[in-house]
Design a protein that fits this description.
Helix content: 25-40%
Mean pLDDT: 96
Bound molecules: flavin-adenine dinucleotide
Number of domains: 1
Number of helices: 12
Largest sheet: 17 strands, mixed
CATH class: Alpha Beta
Radius of gyration: 21 Å
CATH topology: FAD/NAD(P)-binding domain
Oligomer: single chain
Shape: globular
Strand content: 25-35%
CATH superfamily: FAD/NAD(P)-binding domain
CATH architecture: 3-Layer(bba) Sandwich
Number of strands: 17
Order of helices and strands: EHEHEHEHEEHEEEEHEEHHHHEEEHEEH
Low-confidence stretches: none
Length: 378
């Protein structure tokens, strides 16, 4: 396998594929190496919700905007369907409405508006006791379990990217990666190992205090109605930093602690997305550990479904599928390091890889090849 490439990317999740795309667009010869036979990590377990609205103010929000543009650019050529657009961020409480109104006064509110509850029928055919919602038009949603394989197939066919699957990378040095199937040579190497924090550059992860976060996810049967945009609610306003860092979020947090303390204790908030067959992907929860257990707790699922019932004013449809996923987690948006010359270690540590990886990868590739940083500024 000792072939020479311009760039070797370790990891075929969305972060690795985003780097492969950015480099291939510069005409680089790229190899992507992944230990799994097919994508199996966070990138296929997520909602596929490319969330711009609510991302942390500043560079993360700009990365998300750029990433949504890239998803739009590649979706058609790669055969990836954009199933939903925008976001309906419901306010159930006056304190949540105050946060959203404050958000609408910021520069992050591009493409956003406030709508009263009686003006939401096209966004939410069924509603519980909601006061209204912030509606946005800039976000989008893909079905990750098919989108990620299609993105890889298109990178191979249209950009000549080479994939080595079922091959574990055991060591990285400048110019060379050691793998379970021999060595590969590349002028530059980008390591995107997701939440594998111990195989490659463990000291970097330890120094940055990166841990792992486990999420519980559900698929519900087709409810018989359609959501043109994903739906979120009050609990999300104290998790997503674009809202949570606004001063008005303090009063909402205090009320949620009094009224939904158990939801907060399990990191539960509500995201509801809809797939092409009408089924709903619903989540999620957040539990942190170096090695999270693999078990989905029924009481945690019940908290997620409780919020669903309050927001939609009806009992949830039957659960047809359950799974857990994990991602790397730290206080920052991402870990980007140069542990060796012409080697970069890149992990998104905020659970936002589907939303920000394309923008981040353009920045990393621009830095690697001394190009102007176009991604973040777009
Ligand atoms: C349940 C859930 C819901 C989420 N929802 C959203 C969402 O809606 N929107 C959003 O923006 N983000 C969401 N996220 C976060 C997002 O999915 C992650 O940030 C993103 O997928 C991380 O991508 P990755 O490529 O770093 O990791 P992964 O997808 O885990 O890929 C890492 C890859 O590296 C490979 N690898 C690791 N080490 C080696 C090695 N030594 N040799 C070879 N291969 C190796 C692994 O096999 C794996 O394929 C969610 C995450 C989860 C778990």
């Amino acid at each position: 396998m000792e072939q020479q490439f311009d760039l070797a990317v370790v990891g075929a999740g969305i972060v690795g594929l985003a780097h492969a795309l950015a480099a291939a667009r510069l005409g680089k010869r790229v190899v992507v190496i992944d230990r799994d036979a097919q994508a199996n990590g966070a990138s296929v377990r997520n909602f596929g919700f490319v969330t711009v609205t609510g991302q942390a103010r500043g560079e993360v929000w700009r990365r998300a905007r750029r990433s949504a543009q890239v998803w739009d650019e590649i979706a058609g050529p790669a055969g990836i369907a954009v199933l939903q657009r925008g976001l309906t961020m419901v306010a159930r409480r006056p304190e949540a409405r105050d946060v959203l109104r404050a958000f609408l006064d910021t520069e992050m509110a591009q493409g956003c508006a406030w709508r009263e509850a009686d003006d939401l029928a096209d966004r939410m055919p069924r509603r519980g006791a909601v006061l209204g919602a912030l509606t946005s038009s800039v976000d989008l949603r893909v079905e990750s379990r098919t989108a990620i394989p299609r993105l890889a197939t298109w990178l191979e066919a249209a950009h000549g990217v080479t994939f080595r699957r079922g091959v574990a990378v055991t060591d990285v040095e400048t110019g060379r990666v050691e793998t379970s199937a021999g060595a590969a040579r590349a002028d530059a190497i980008i390591v995107c190992p997701g939440d594998d924090l111990t195989t490659l550059f463990p000291d970097s992860f330890a120094r940055a205090e990166v841990t792992r976060c486990k999420l519980q996810m559900l698929r519900l049967a087709d409810p018989g109605w359609r959501l043109p945009s994903p739906v979120m609610s009050d609990l999300g306003l104290v998790r997503y930093l674009g809202y949570a860092e606004l001063p008005q979020a303090g009063a909402l947090r205090a009320r949620l602690e009094a009224e939904q303390g158990e939801h907060l204790a399990h990191g539960v908030h509500l995201i509801v997305t809809q797939s092409a067959d009408g089924s709903l992907v619903v989540g999620d929860s957040h539990h942190y550990a170096a090695t999270p257990d693999p078990f989905a707790r029924e009481d945690v699922d019940a908290l997620i479904l409780d919020e669903f019932a309050r927001v939609f004013g009806q009992a949830p449809p039957p659960v047809v599928e359950r799974w857990t996923g994990t991602y790397a987690s730290a206080a920052s948006h991402s870990l980007v390091e140069a542990p060796l010359p012409r080697v970069r270690l890149v992990t998104v540590t905020s659970g936002t890889g589907a939303s920000t990886a394309f923008g981040l990868a353009e920045e990393v590739i621009a830095g690697l090849y001394d190009l102007p940083r176009q991604g973040a500024a777009a």
